[in-house]
Design brief:
By secondary structure, the protein is α/β, with parallel strands linked by helices. It has 14 helices and 20 strands. α6 packs across α11. The chain starts with a strand and ends in a 13-residue tail after the last strand. Bound molecules: xanthosine-5'-monophosphate (XMP).
Length: 513
């Protein structure tokens, strides 16, 4: 069945994939195309509408990106966002100039007033905050357009020609900072473009499987499966698409949480593919013995991981494709260029050069995390894998402070399992972005029964966050903390004191190392 399609025409803005994601969220199939795509090709896709994205340029500059003006004669509605709005205004006879300081240059959160008789704002409040980021001003609005929203500084925050279905907004409805932004996009899709909402994650699954089959043909595919959400969903999708042509190598470095390795194995054993679990605990612990410096731990684990994976790959022989569970936020992060390295995350960015393969497959490359989870559910993966909180590649090695031993890791595993059990029992798991226990390197004196103890201090960490770049410490109720503390000290030998980490990020990071 052919789906209705929305085309997001890309002018180089930073939120373009986010726009696409919002459209998908509204149940409409969507593709992002470069603004240079020939008009004939765009026409052939029979879109129900276009969204023109923002972009870093000013429309009045000589080399600024443009579109063939015939696009406005296609009889298809257009929503222009920021640069896209100004581009449309200029193409249809308006005039755009650099804003003067005191007129309409706006950045950040801006109180905005809407004309709710305009289809774009139908059913929404008459005012609210929008997220602005524009230095240009529409001095003259094109003929046929009316003003549909304004702010204190700017009379034409939104413009509309409802007869032709052309709308332009100077703010970013796709970002969360814009109140009701998603509802505005939904209005454009349903009220203006007549969308029927004929697209679901099930359709995405089918489209993705067909695309993988076409790309891979009869080729062999190799995937490093970590058991995290992304690689698990990637494995399931590939298994569904190419079955036995897929080999998944799960390097069990012995730094996973309690029972995690067995859970991963149990989840993937039934799938029609080759699943190899490599028990490499002894190798990793040997390499890490006596190492206390966090970055050094990460480096050793990263290198050892590659070595183990390489050995397994050699046994398989030549593979045609190397699969990676890269998701869209990884694409942005690894493209960040010269941003300072705070912690070297070994499992994002960069193509491995150590395995012979012809091509890379990254079937999740355009999805956001919650879409990946949704796809995992669609594929029938168990909830404990799909809903799993982020877990660092170096695992518990960076949650045992200082030098590592198997005993310390086992102690941490037992304590961490109790912590997670009680958070789940209290129903707090969904609100908290990430929570885990850290075995500190500090020992202190306590009394246990009639005797003196001299045991480790365990730290509990829990944060609320949406992007993991910033985070706040979670306000777990004291009663729950009390229960967790009592259980851990009673049930886990070697720990006699529990502390709760009440620092946000920044200035702290989420992990301790
Ligand atoms: P920080 O500690 O930098 O963590 O605030 C932010 C997020 O990244 C995870 N993290 C890692 N993930 N390899 C990873 O794959 C790593 O080396 C690593 N270090 C931190 C951390 O768990 C949190 O979700």
């Amino acid at each position: 069945m052919k789906h209705q399609m929305m085309i997001v025409l890309d002018f180089g803005g930073q939120y373009n994939q986010l726009i696409a994601r919002r459209v998908r969220e509204c149940g409409v199939y969507c593709e992002v195309k470069p603004y240079t795509t020939p008009l004939e090709d765009l026409r052939a896709m029979e879109p129900i509408g276009f969204i023109f994205t923002g972009g870093p340029n000013s429309v009045y500059l000589e080399d600024a990106p443009h579109v063939d003006p015939a696009i406005f004669q296609m009889g298809v509605p257009v929503l222009g966002i920021c640069y896209g709005c100004q581009l449309m205004a200029q193409a249809l006879g308006g005039r755009v100039t650099a804003a003067q300081e005191d007129t309409a240059r706006e950045y950040g959160k801006t109180e905005t007033f809407f004309d709710t008789s305009c289809k774009l704002f139908k059913g929404l409040p008459e005012h609210g905050v929008t997220w602005m980021s524009h230095g240009d001003y529409m001095e003259k609005v094109p003929d046929g357009f009316g003003l549909a929203a304004h702010s204190k500084a700017c009379p034409n925050v939104a413009i509309a020609d409802e007869n032709r279905g052309f709308y332009g907004v100077q703010y970013h409805p796709e970002v969360n900072h814009t109140e009701n932004g998603l509802a505005m996009i939904r209005n454009f899709l349903y009220e203006v473009c007549g969308a029927s909402g004929d697209w679901t994650m099930g359709d995405y699954k089918r489209t993705a499987i067909a695309a993988i089959r076409e790309k891979v043909g009869n080729g062999k595919v190799l995937l490093a499966l970590s058991g995290g959400v992304d690689s698990s969903v990637c494995a399931a999708l590939l298994a569904e698409a190419v079955g036995e042509q897929l080999t998944c190598v799960f390097v069990d470095h012995g730094l996973m949480r309690k029972n995690e390795g067995d859970e991963v194995e149990a989840a993937f054993k039934p799938w029609a593919m080759h699943f190899i679990r490599v028990d490499a605990e002894a190798r990793f612990l040997d390499k890490l013995s006596g190492v206390t410096e966090p970055e050094r731990k990460r480096k050793i684990i990263g290198e050892e991981f590659i070595r183990v994976f390489e050995e397994e790959a050699k046994k398989i022989g030549t593979v045609d494709f190397l699969a990676q569970g890269t998701i869209y936020p990884d694409v942005i992060e690894s493209g960040a260029g010269d941003a300072a390295v705070i912690k070297s995350h070994h499992n994002v960015g960069g193509l491995p050069e150590y395995v012979d393969f012809k091509e890379i497959v990254e079937p999740l490359r355009l999805l956001f995390k919650d879409e990946v989870r949704q796809l995992g559910r669609e594929l029938g993966l168990p909830e404990y894998l799909v809903a799993r909180q982020p877990f660092p590649g170096p695992g518990l090695a960076i949650r045992v402070i200082g030098d590592l031993t198997k005993d310390k890791l086992d102690t941490l595993r037992d304590a961490d399992a109790i912590y997670r059990e009680e958070i789940a029992a209290a129903g707090l798991g969904i609100q908290i972005g990430q929570y885990f226990a850290v075995l500190t390197n500090t020992r202190s004196v306590g009394v246990m029964g009639d005797g003196r103890s001299y045991d480790y201090t365990l730290a509990l960490r829990a944060v609320t966050t949406t992007d993991f770049m910033t985070a706040d410490w979670a306000r777990i109720p004291f009663e729950t903390l009390d229960l967790i503390s009592t259980r851990i000290v009673n049930e886990v030998p070697g720990i006699n004191r529990i502390v709760y980490d009440i620092t946000s990020k920044p200035p702290a990071t989420i992990e301790w190392e």
